[in-house]
Design goal:
alpha+beta
Length: about 90
């Protein structure tokens, strides 16, 4: 069983002259056998905010990744790019 890193890029539709907002979610293994959920949020072309959350096992990290994805989709963001993920649902 190979567990790979995952990455999603979600973006809001542009509204007027403002650059669209984005959320990038990454799930990656750390050097100690745990997992890290990295959330980057911001506005395209401007500063962004980076938050990291550590998890002991893949199952809890994946659950947090899916929760973050679902919450972001409910806010009106659309999936732009997916890597290492079979489907956004």
């Amino acid at each position: 069983l190979t567990i790979r890193a995952m990455r999603l890029l979600l973006q809001q539709r542009p509204d007027g002259p403002e650059a669209p907002r984005f959320v990038q979610l990454q799930l990656e293994a750390d050097l100690f056998g745990g997992w890290c959920l990295v959330r980057e949020t911001g506005q395209t072309g401007k500063r962004s905010t980076l938050k990291r959350e550590q998890f002991i096992d893949h199952a809890s990290a994946l659950a947090a990744f899916e929760r973050a994805r679902d919450q972001t989709l409910k806010k009106g963001f659309q999936l732009v790019f997916a890597q290492g993920v079979d489907s956004p649902n």
